[in-house]
């Protein structure tokens, strides 16, 4: 859009914005073309489970008007449901990010305007309590205000539907269309929020997790824990203590929710340096395990002592450990699931135990639905530190996953073994799997467009080798893969040696490559060669 068009659009948006702060921001940016283009240029659209973007004025940002219009879209979808389903109401929660409480209040005001019953969770609780409550109370939907592990300036709007799992197609498209055509509501009155049922849901979640993972006796396991300045601290420590872990050492500076995340560059435990304080504390007190949640506590990171020094496990390694604990307990109706960008080792582990395993598209909106109506999803995971270990939550849950991994560590301790021993045993029995990722963050939409074009070219004209590994198959994920829905990306297979999968992130402006290699010998450097070739392709 030209500057005049941007100014016209900004004035129209500001005239209808009932938040004086963001209205003033827009008017103040009328002479700043770059800022105006950032606010007005690319309206937020539904990605993985909802919206995410910077907290700022205009349709490109997370603000009260964006939240209002999105909730109107949800209301329009609710109107398509039968009356008994719709009567279950909507669960609403929020984390501690910038704007979260204001957006939470706005959601509740809009729902009240349309006479929709609300189950309001107390503010600043972990995301998994929303899908838990949807199922527990038979709600029609759940809305969580969070941007998960995105940078501090961001916030988001995460939507769960009637089955308690993340929204997916075609409901997301319906809601997006409805939000973009929503009528203006004018000023909405303040609503007195009754969170009585929300407090009950919180209590039921804690009681369920403690009952599910309770130890036969108190464990001497020394645990270091951090919520990375997010909202998981109270729930995680309460459940860990209740299960039977009295020796919990918390990273004090990261226990209080902080929307600026204590100066961390990215509030994501996958990023280098984020767990430094936790590992330093663990070294000081000679802890047995480090566990960390991301800011909304739906993910879990783990560090262990390996050969005398602390090592942060990969998301896949944590998945293998949890699978080792859960697979032997599975019954004939149980299913395990993982995504196409996670390690394929879970499939071999499940086959060895006689348990059905499935691959899904990336994201828990697919993994959580990996079982049919006649089956039960006993375990699901994705390499990005997401784990579903309890069927009461149809999503990844960093709290219950923390309880599961610590309970398994304690069980192994009583058997004279360790989590590191189990990882070594898995690799010895099923293959020496080596994993890494290569990612590149986009500067703007042009970067993403260029990378997508290069993906298309890679599919049409692939090389014969990649890092000196012979390419045996080129799979266009856009054509569907093993019966899955089409998605943007390409998978290059190297026979029995491994694969690399390249795709755009569904939650961040990134292009990501997931590399899995089965090492043929201790000196095999195929992983490093494939990673180098991938970085060269990105460049």
Describe this structure in words.
- With 539 residues, the protein is an alpha/beta fold.
- The protein is 38% helix and 20% strand.
- It has three domains: 42-201, 3-Layer(aba) Sandwich (Alpha-D-Glucose-1,6-Bisphosphate, Chain A, domain 3), CATH 3.40.120.10; 217-428, Alpha-D-Glucose-1,6-Bisphosphate, Chain A, domain 3; 432-538, Alpha-D-phosphohexomutase, C-terminal domain (TATA-Binding Protein).
- It contains 18 helices and 21 strands.
- A hairpin with a 4-residue loop joins β19 (490-493) and β20 (498-504).
- α7 (129-137) crosses α9.
Radius of gyration, in angstroms, nearest whole number: 23 Å
Q: What is the CATH topology assignment of the largest domain?
A: Alpha-D-Glucose-1,6-Bisphosphate, Chain A, domain 3
User: Architecture of the largest domain, according to CATH?
Assistant: 3-Layer(aba) Sandwich
State the total count of DSSP E strands. Answer: 21
- The mean pLDDT is 95
- The neighbouring-strand order within the major sheet is 1-5-4-2-3
The number of distinct structural domains comes to: 3
Going by CATH, the homologous superfamily of the largest domain would be Alpha-D-Glucose-1,6-Bisphosphate, subunit A, domain 3
Top-tier CATH class of the largest domain: Alpha Beta
The portion of residues assigned to helices is 25-40%
Termini separation comes to 30 Å
């Amino acid at each position: 859009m030209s500057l005049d068009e941007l100014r016209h659009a900004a004035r129209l948006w500001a005239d209808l914005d009932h938040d004086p702060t963001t209205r003033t921001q827009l008017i103040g940016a009328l002479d700043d073309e770059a800022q105006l283009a950032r606010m007005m240029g690319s309206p937020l659209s539904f990605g993985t489970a909802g919206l995410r973007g910077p907290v700022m004025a205009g349709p490109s940002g997370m603000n009260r008007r964006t939240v209002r219009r999105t909730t109107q879209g949800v209301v329009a979808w609710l109107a398509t449901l039968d009356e008994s389903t719709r009567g279950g109401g909507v669960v609403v929660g929020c984390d501690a990010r910038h704007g979260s409480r204001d957006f939470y209040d706005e959601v509740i005001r809009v729902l009240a305007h349309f006479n929709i019953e609300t189950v309001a969770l107390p503010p600043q609780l972990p995301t998994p309590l929303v899908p838990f409550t949807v199922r527990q109370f038979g709600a029609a939907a759940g809305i969580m205000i969070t941007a998960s592990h995105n940078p501090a300036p961001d916030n988001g709007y995460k939507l769960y539907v009637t089955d308690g799992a993340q929204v997916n197609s075609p409901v997301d498209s319906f809601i997006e269309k409805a939000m973009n055509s929503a009528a203006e509501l004018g000023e909405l009155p303040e609503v007195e929020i009754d969170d009585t049922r929300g407090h009950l849901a919180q209590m039921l979640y804690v009681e369920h997790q403690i009952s599910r993972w309770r130890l036969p006796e108190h464990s001497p396991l020394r645990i270091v824990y951090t919520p990375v300045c997010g909202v998981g601290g109270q729930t995680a420590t309460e459940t860990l203590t209740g299960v039977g872990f009295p020796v919990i050492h918390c990273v004090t500076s990261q226990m209080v929710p902080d929307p600026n995340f204590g100066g961390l560059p990215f509030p994501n435990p996958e990023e280098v340096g984020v767990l430094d304080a936790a590992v330093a504390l663990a070294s000081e007190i000679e802890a047995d395990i480090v566990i960390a949640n991301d800011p909304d506590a739906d993910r879990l990171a783990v560090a262990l002592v390996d050969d005398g020094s602390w090592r942060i496990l990969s998301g896949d390694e944590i998945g293998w450990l949890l699978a080792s604990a859960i697979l032997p307990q599975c019954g004939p109706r149980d299913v395990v699931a993982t995504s196409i960008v996670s390690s394929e080792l879970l499939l071999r582990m499940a086959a060895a135990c006689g348990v059905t395993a499935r691959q899904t598209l990336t994201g828990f909106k697919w993994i959580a639905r990996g079982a049919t109506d006649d089956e039960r999803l006993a375990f699901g995971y994705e390499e990005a530190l997401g784990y579903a270990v309890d069927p009461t939550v149809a999503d990844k849950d960093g709290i219950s996953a923390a309880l599961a991994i610590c309970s398994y560590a304690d069980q192994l301790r009583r058997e004279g073994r360790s989590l590191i021993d189990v990882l070594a045993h898995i690799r010895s029995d099923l293959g020496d799997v080596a994993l890494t990722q290569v990612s590149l963050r986009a500067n703007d939409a042009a970067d993403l467009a260029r990378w997508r074009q290069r993906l298309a070219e890679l599919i049409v004209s692939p090389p014969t080798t990649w890092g000196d590994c012979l390419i045996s198959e080129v799979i266009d994920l856009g054509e569907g893969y093993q019966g899955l829905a089409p998605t943007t990306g390409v998978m290059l297979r190297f026979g029995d040696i491994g694969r690399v999968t390249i795709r755009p992130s569904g939650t961040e402006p990134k292009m990501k490559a997931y590399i899995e290699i089965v090492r043929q010998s201790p000196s095999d450097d195929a992983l490093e060669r494939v990673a180098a070739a991938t970085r060269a392709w990105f460049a």
